[in-house]
Every structure is written in C-alpha cells, then in structure tokens.
Design brief:
By secondary structure, this protein is mainly alpha-helical. The protein has helices at residues 15-27, 37-44, 63-69, 72-85, 91-102, 109-120, and strands spanning 3-8, 56-61, 125-127. Helix 2 runs parallel beside helix 6 (109-120) and helix 4 runs antiparallel to helix 5. The protein starts with a strand and ends with a strand.
C-alpha cells in the first residue's frame, strides 16, 4: 500500500518552515525528516520514517506558492548563511551562486529540494 505524505505548500514560507512541514508529514508533530539538504537526502533514502519498501509518495500541494516562497530571495538568504560558515576554499563558489541568486538567476531552494527528491526517491514527488 502506497503511503502519501502531504506538504501543504501554502504553509511553506521559507526553508526552515519546509523542514518542519516535511518532518510533521512523515513523522508526526515535531517529527524529523532532515534539517539540511544532506540530511534530507539521507532521510529520503529510507529508514527515517518512510516505509522500508520505499512505497511512498510526497504530494506537494499548492507547490507554486512554495516555489515562490523558496525562490531566488530565499535562495540568496540561504546562500548568505552558507557563506558565513563555508571553508575558505569554497567561498568563491558560494559567492558566485549568491551573486546569481541575487540577480534572480540560477537554481532556487525549491529546485534544490525537488532535485534531491527526484535523485534520491525517483517518481515519488507529485506536484499539485
């Protein structure tokens, strides 16, 4: 039986809120399902609340509202946070990504999340 996890896209106001909503969808109130991109990718690989047989769907309702909330402005905000803690060797890469986001170009946080879902759990994402 396929389990469906629902992300209420109208409630996604930023990346931190996304982490709360996906955690609650999969593991109930105050549930955890990643709090950063790497942890999220690991959680999608199974064993953190998703069925072991990987028979699940993530239904992202009102995803266009989330796409806007997780757009270039939020991406720039996240990249500024990343820039503050990234090793010196990677600073120019992150700065370049930040410059692109601030100019309204390049992948967004929404793209990062949907890309991870497609990579780690192909076929489970339903954008509604």
């Amino acid at each position: 039986m396929t389990v469906t996890y629902v992300i209420p896209g109208a409630e996604v106001t930023g990346l931190e809120r996304f982490w709360q909503l996906i955690g609650e969808a999969v593991n109930g109130p105050d549930g955890y399902f990643g709090r950063n991109l790497d942890a999220f990718a690991d959680c999608l690989s199974g064993g953190y609340g998703t069925p072991d047989d990987r028979d699940f769907v993530i239904e992202w309702r009102d995803h266009e509202l989330s796409r806007r909330a997780l757009g270039h402005q939020e991406t720039a905000r996240q990249l500024r946070l990343r820039l503050a803690r990234v090793p010196e060797v990677n600073r120019s890469l992150v700065q370049g990504q930040l410059d692109e986001a601030e100019a309204g170009r390049g992948p967004t946080v929404f793209d990062w999340l949907t890309g991870i879902i497609d990579e780690r759990a192909p076929g489970v994402l339903r954008l509604l």
